[in-house]
Automatic annotation (TrEMBL):
MF-aspect GO terms: nucleoside triphosphate diphosphatase activity
One Pfam family linked to the record: Maf
InterPro entries membership: ITPase-like_fam (IPR029001), Maf-like (IPR003697)
UniProt name for this protein: Maf-like protein
Keyword match Hydrolase: yes
Residues forming coiled coils: none
Alphabetical keyword list: Hydrolase
Keyword Zinc: no
Superkingdom classification of source: Eukaryota
């Protein structure tokens, strides 16, 4: 994989720490960019269609951001002002503005995830109360995660995506544990308030039908396959 990794560059279009960790575990070096989009403005009936549409919108937003940086570079020579994480991640390594002419391709990876409970799509909780209700619902029951991955080859314009679904079954989760989870706060920032790898929730996971990396936001097998197809 390392021999491979030198023949192309990767931009991970996500602010997710879990996704960074998974991509690094896969042996890839990458830079990070984030997409500023209104996810709530994108609505689809099926969860699979929703996560694909949001991942596409993220890719489009990042490409547009790259083109803006490119145009600014062409117009003027002064310092480029971009968000801190973007600047630090991209400017030193990525010859932005030359990625289409670059000898080696740059692959942009974007993804999205929702939780499905009793046929209803759940995104990030809007409040502590909603997060508490979400977790109470999972107690003794089950939910699924539906996650998408879209890879865009910035040199050729080729784009390919796919989605992955994982079913999660829970033991009863005591109220005091739910309160601890809400106080700790991480559950407020993830789809459906669901984090199976969290030390407070892990003991209450009965069964996972699928892979943990997919639940965490980046299915490795799907990502690997799409990277190969995009090159």
């Amino acid at each position: 994989m390392d021999a491979n990794a030198s023949s192309f560059k990767i931009i991970l279009g996500s602010a997710s720490v879990a996704r960074r960790k998974i991509l690094a575990e896969m042996g890839y070096e990458f830079t990070v960019m984030t997409a500023d989009i209104d996810e709530k403005g994108i609505r689809k009936e099926k969860p699979e269609e929703l996560v694909m549409a949001i991942a596409e919108a993220k890719a489009d937003a990042i490409i547009s951001k790259l083109q803006t940086i490119d145009n600014r570079e062409k117009d003027t020579k002064p310092t480029i002002l971009v968000a801190a994480d973007t600047a630090e991640a991209i400017l030193p390594k990525l010859p932005v503005g030359h990625y289409k002419m670059d000898a080696e391709p740059t692959l942009l990876i974007t993804s999205d995830q929702v939780v499905v409970y009793e046929g209803m799509v759940r995104e990030k909780p809007s409040s502590k109360e909603e997060a508490r209700q979400f977790i109470k619902d999972y107690s003794g029951g089950h939910a699924a995660t539906v996650g998408s991955v879209i890879i865009t080859n910035l040199k050729t314009g080729f784009r390919k995506g796919g989605w992955d679904k994982v079913e999660i079954y829970f033991h009863e989760i005591p109220d005091e544990m739910i309160n601890k989870l809400i106080e700790e706060g991480t559950v407020l920032y993830v789809a459906g308030g669901l984090i199976i790898e969290h030390p407070l929730i892990l003991p209450f996971i009965k069964e996972v039908v699928g892979t943990t990396d997919s639940v965490m936001g980046l299915p490795k097998a799907l990502t690997e396959r799409l990277i190969k197809e995009a090159l």
